Amino acid sequence: MEQARSQRQVNSRTGFAIEGSRATCVGNWQAQELHDVEKLMSQVKWPADAVEFDLGGITSLDTVGAWLLFRTIREIDDGNRQLSVLNVNEQHQKLLDLVEDRSESIRKPPKPYVPGVLESIGRHTSSQFLQYFEFLNFIGKLAIVFSKLFLRPWRLRWGLVVKELQSAGVNALPIVGLLAFLIGIVIAYQGGIVLRDYGANIYVADIVGLSMVRELAPLITAIIVAGRTGSAYTAQIGTMMVTEEVDALRSIGVAPLEILVLPKLVALVIALPLLTVFADAMGLFGGMIMASSMLDLNSSTFINRLTEAMTMNSYLSGIGKAPVFAAIIAVVGCFQGFRVYGSAESVGRQTTISVVESIFLVIIVDAAFSVAFSKLGI
Amino acid sequence: MAEHILQAHDLVMKFGRKCVLDRISMQLERGEILAIVGGSGSGKSTLMRQLALLQTPTSGSIELFGERVLEMSEFRTLPLRRRMGVMFQNGALFGDLTVLENISMPLREHTSISLETIEQIAMLKLALAGLEPEAAALFPSQLSGGMRKRAAVARGIAMDPEILFLDEPGSGLDPVSADAMDDLVLHLKRTLGLTVVLVTHDMDSLWRVADRIVLLADTRIAAEGTLQEVLESGHAAAHKFFHGRRGRVVGATYDQ
């Protein structure tokens, strides 16, 4: 009776209260409710001579609660205190026994090894070198496969090439066209602002024509294709690495390079120049629309000026870069795909690397082209 | 009469035109180990996923801890989900977290107890699942198949769930590890008072751990009851499943 009354006096919320030597635990001792109890248990001043834990008021106990109790009892057990646990029901006892049984294995968890700064730098450097070496290795292997192709061109899987042409080329037309069109508008607008002040409206055709055809169309197209197709190559080959399909190809006696890389490379080298031509046209079209609406330059004047401003050289110097960009995108995309190992997580990582690396390389090579063209006077 | 903590009524699952589960009704009693068995593609994993609220059936109703869950919003089912643990077939451990962080994750998300205590609890669950303390610092990719399943069980029981779902606990393990996995399930049931639902087609597991069996065949429950009852049910599917060459070998050794 008396015990029942004292329980009612204690707040029915989860917690415990100390009265004399008795620590009365009440409420729902489950993980979600225990943060206050945990704090209280480490702060409270325990009676020096004896502590009786009364678990009679606990409605439910889980391993977290049991562990907190056990840990506290172990901590305050200094040999002088009389410690006892009262009113334990069968199920609670089971849990207390459980944590006691396993208490040996509950110690400071080992920390995963974290390398120091110097070691990280070293590791990163060596892995980068290793990757360059692997990349050269990959290009070498690819060159061998490619040279064999010249001897026996019928060995190329033309079916796969056509499929890749469809997905990398035809399906990319809308996005490439739209973006080139918008870039054309932007260039005409920016150029138009300056030219209008000088009354040199007609030269907007020069600006749009040359910048679009020589530089922007090939670059924009390559960047879109790197993001769209290069990533798809990495993801496709990467997934096949994870599911061991690449190994399956090897076991059947088919060179993965021949069936997975070569058709993609050939298809992209064909598709990217074609896409660039389309981007040229759409960019010029965009520029023409902007010129007529902003500078009152009608389209026949624009086209007439265009034919004077543009030379065959500038057109070819733009288109000529596209196959090189295509090769970079396809090779980097496939290479990163083959570097996937282990889990699906690695596919995502390599795909990101593939896109960043191929865009980076495309821009570097584009800059190199510019330097070379300026030296050659093209 | 034991308490039914999970009841399913007339569950139907259709993928397009293909019917995978057809009017399945079943109950789960507190404290039992229920095995869902059936041939490959019999829908047993689908059924388990529905019971674990991971997949919504085409029609039917599920009553979990006395609440009709299919009518509830996803948000409102969260507290109920915390009372269940799931071990996925391949572990589904988070790849960028260590084993210890994987096990701590539910506790970190749902409680505000101190990190130190959480780590201690995680180490306790790790030990309960039968892993060495050294495994705590490893990443999932560094674990063997058996260890990965144990780590997944440890994460599944992190919040002291009332129901633990195990998807093919023994698959992909060697016989010794699969046996150890069965021991683990029995041990957890004894110590934590867990209710376990497991999907399996491992005969040894069925003989050793299952209190009750639900046999799925042709989108329906073909037989239900203890292993003995299912064996004696005389249903064609049960006969095919348990008296096939693989089933008979195991059965014979246990019959002796």
Describe this structure as you would to a colleague.
The complex is a heterodimer of chains A (378) and B (256). The longest helix of chain A is centred in the middle third of the chain and has 39 residues, at 204-242. With 378 residues, chain A is an alpha/beta fold. In chain A, helix 7 (173-198) packs parallel to helix 10 and helix 10 (256-294) packs across helix 12 (312-338). Chain A has 13 helices and 4 strands. The model of chain A is unreliable at 1-11 (pLDDT under 50). The A-B interface holds A 30-32, 34-35, 38, 62-64, 67-68, 71, 91, 94-95, 98-99, 102, 105-107, 109-113, 342-343, 345 and B 95-96, 98, 100, 107, 110-114, 117, 119-128, 133-134, 136-139, 141, 159-160, 191-193.
**Gyration radius over CA of chain A:** 36 Å
Tally of helical segments of chain A: 13
Low-confidence stretches of chain B: 249-256
Shape of chain B: globular
Count of distinct strands of chain B: 10
Keywords:
heterodimer; A: 378 residues; alpha/beta; Transcription Regulator spoIIAA; 2 domains; four-stranded mixed β-sheet; 4 strands; 72% helix; disordered N terminus; B: 256 residues; six-stranded mixed β-sheet; four-stranded antiparallel β-sheet; 10 helices; 40% helix; disordered C terminus
Topology of helices and strands:
The complex is a heterodimer of chains A (378) and B (256).
Chain A (H helix, E strand, L loop, with lengths): L1 H8 L5 E5 L2 E8 L5 H9 L6 E12 L1 H14 L5 E5 L3 H13 L14 H35 L6 H12 L3 H26 L5 H39 L2 H8 L3 H39 L4 H11 L2 H27 L5 H33 L2
Parallel strand pairs in A: 2-3, 3-4
Antiparallel strand pairs in A: 1-2
Chain B lengths: L3 E12 L2 E12 L3 E6 L5 H8 L7 E6 L2 E2 L5 H8 L2 E4 L11 H12 L4 H14 L16 H12 L6 E5 L7 H18 L2 E5 L3 H7 L2 E6 L2 E6 L1 H6 L3 H7 L2 H11 L1
Parallel strand pairs in B: 3-8, 3-9, 6-7, 7-8
Antiparallel strand pairs in B: 1-2, 1-4, 4-5, 9-10
